[in-house]
């Protein structure tokens, strides 16, 4: 989201006014379904014991293990019964207002293409594997489902307050790269992590990144990187807790306050941080040298 440089300002030919397009499931080739199956098999093996309980339950109840790229109609039927969400296809990145409107109305927008077999590990734009395998399982969880719908409404409001920078960081450090503390240990729930072979190990096991207890204001101040593994992960105590603090806090005064404060660079630790792991940053330092 929010990287407007690749975004058109009106729906491309063939798309509806709300930017959706028919998924046209039948257009995917055998090769494309095979890419999904390859990615699925790799992640499904890695995630038990790493992904959050809510994520793994979602994968199961939505029957995402069925071979091939999921048919959005079938997927939306299951999801609708569980939490009232649907999955709709879009050609690629969409403008923020469109993204928030769908989200506030419990429609999750998913890219209608899949990476090539020679791009399994790295991709610039979110494809159907990232969007569906990464995001959709969490939408089967009633609490997370409510969080994302509330986020959509918060996005509409933040646009009017010119505060998308702050709200976007909340998305980044929860929806995309969040960790949750479960009784057995830290677990993954961010879509950017669970859909990545390398980061789903790095985020939990590597001594490099900081792992910091989630604090709303801290998260909203913190810069992030879009080009490599994160240098910080923020850990929520539970999804109930995340929903409660974000819904009960009025963000408008917070945005005003944050505008007066400096942003926090990616690897900086603050005196008030509750550190679960103080990262060595060895990975980022090695890359930089
Ligand atoms: N409470 C937020 C606001 O006042 C809305 C919001 C809820 C944003 C949940 C994100 C997640 O704008
Ligand atoms: Fe995503």
TrEMBL record:
Entry EC no(s): 1.14.16.1
Associated pathway: Amino-acid degradation; L-phenylalanine degradation; acetoacetate and fumarate from L-phenylalanine: step 1/6
EC class (word): oxidoreductase
Annotated InterPro entries: ArAA_hydroxylase, ArAA_hydroxylase_Fe/CU_BS, ArAA_hydroxylase_sf, Aro-AA_hydroxylase_C_sf, Aromatic-AA_hydroxylase_C, Phe-4-hydroxylase_mono
Pfam families listed in its UniProt record: Biopterin_H (PF00351)
Cofactor: Fe(2+)
Keywords associated with the record: Iron, Metal-binding, Monooxygenase, Oxidoreductase, Phenylalanine catabolism
Domain Biopterin-dependent aromatic amino acid hydroxylase family profile residues, every copy: 1-289
Keyword Transmembrane attributed: no
Catalysed reactions, as listed in the record: (6R)-L-erythro-5,6,7,8-tetrahydrobiopterin + L-phenylalanine + O2 = (4aS,6R)-4a-hydroxy-L-erythro-5,6,7,8-tetrahydrobiopterin + L-tyrosine
Classification via PANTHER family: AROMATIC AMINO ACID HYDROXYLASE, PHENYLALANINE-4-HYDROXYLASE
Family designation: Belongs to the biopterin-dependent aromatic amino acid hydroxylase family.
NCBIfam families: Phe4hydrox_mono, PRK11913.1-2
Protein name as it appears in the record: Phenylalanine-4-hydroxylase
């Amino acid at each position: 989201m929010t990287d407007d440089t690749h975004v058109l300002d009106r729906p491309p030919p063939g798309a509806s006014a709300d930017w959706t397009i028919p998924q046209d499931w039948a257009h995917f080739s055998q090769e494309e379904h095979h890419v999904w199956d390859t990615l699925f098999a790799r992640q499904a093996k890695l995630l038990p014991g790493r992904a959050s309980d809510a994520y793994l339950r979602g994968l199961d109840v939505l029957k995402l293990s069925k071979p091939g790229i999921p048919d959005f109609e079938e997927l939306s039927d299951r999801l609708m019964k569980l939490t009232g969400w649907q999955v709709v296809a879009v050609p690629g990145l969409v403008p923020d207002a469109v993204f928030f409107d769908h989200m506030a109305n419990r429609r999750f927008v998913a890219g209608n293409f899949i990476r090539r077999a020679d791009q399994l590990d790295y991709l610039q734009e979110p494809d159907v594997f990232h969007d569906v395998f990464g995001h959709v399982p969490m939408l089967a969880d009633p609490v997370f489902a409510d969080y994302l719908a509330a986020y959509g409404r918060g996005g509409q409001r933040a646009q009017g307050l010119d505060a998308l920078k702050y709200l976007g960081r909340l998305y980044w450090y929860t929806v995309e790269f969040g960790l949750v503390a479960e009784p057995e240990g830290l677990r993954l729930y961010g879509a950017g992590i669970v859909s990545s072979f390398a980061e789903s190990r790095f985020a939990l096991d590597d001594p490099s990144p900081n792992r910091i207890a989630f604090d709303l204001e801290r998260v909203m101040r913190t810069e992030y990187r879009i080009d490599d593994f994160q240098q910080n992960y923020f850990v929520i105590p539970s999804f109930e807790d995340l929903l409660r603090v974000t819904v009960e806090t009025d963000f408008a005064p917070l945005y005003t306050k944050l505008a007066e404060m400096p942003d926090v660079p990616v690897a900086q630790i603050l005196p008030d941080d509750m550190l679960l792991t103080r990262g060595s940053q060895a990975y980022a330092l090695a890359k930089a040298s």
